[in-house]
Design a protein that fits this description.
This protein has a single domain, classed as Rhodanese-like domain (Oxidized Rhodanese, domain 1, 3-Layer(aba) Sandwich), CATH 3.40.250. The protein contains six helices and five strands, in the order H-E-H-E-H-E-H-E-H-E-H. A five-stranded parallel β-sheet has the order 1-5-4-2-3.
């Protein structure tokens, strides 16, 4: 039986670490913030200091991005609701990034919590 996208997300979440938005907010100053949404989503609003590398090209672009040369750096990954970030965090782990975490609830929960947004 074929897996659905949500099956893939559920499997990814079994092998990654997720943090809540409050923990992400408290870690903003010591972590890289990776937004894996599409450029139009990013342009409409994002977490402060976030770097946008869309999920669809992440594996091809991350290693060449100057901010992501240290594979031991703490990275908070987020998307709109948490699915793409879970898949992206799993991919980062496979690529050797040892301290990447996915922000549960994504940008939607961040925004609903009333936390700062940049545009």
């Amino acid at each position: 039986m074929a897996l659905t996208a949500m099956d893939l997300v559920a499997l990814a979440k079994q092998s990654i670490r997720e943090i809540d938005v409050e923990s992400a907010k408290n870690s903003l100053n010591k972590s890289l913030i990776l937004d894996v949404r599409e450029p139009a989503e990013f342009a409409a609003g994002h977490l402060p200091e976030a770097i946008n590398i869309p999920r669809g090209v992440l594996e091809f672009k991350i290693a060449n991005h100057p901010s992501f040369q240290n594979q031991q750096a703490e990275i908070i990954v987020y998307c709109q609701s948490g699915g793409r970030s879970a898949l992206a965090t799993e991919a980062l782990s496979k690529l050797g990034y040892s301290n990447a975490v996915s922000m549960a609830g994504g940008f939607n929960l961040w925004q609903a919590s009333g936390f700062q947004i940049s545009s």
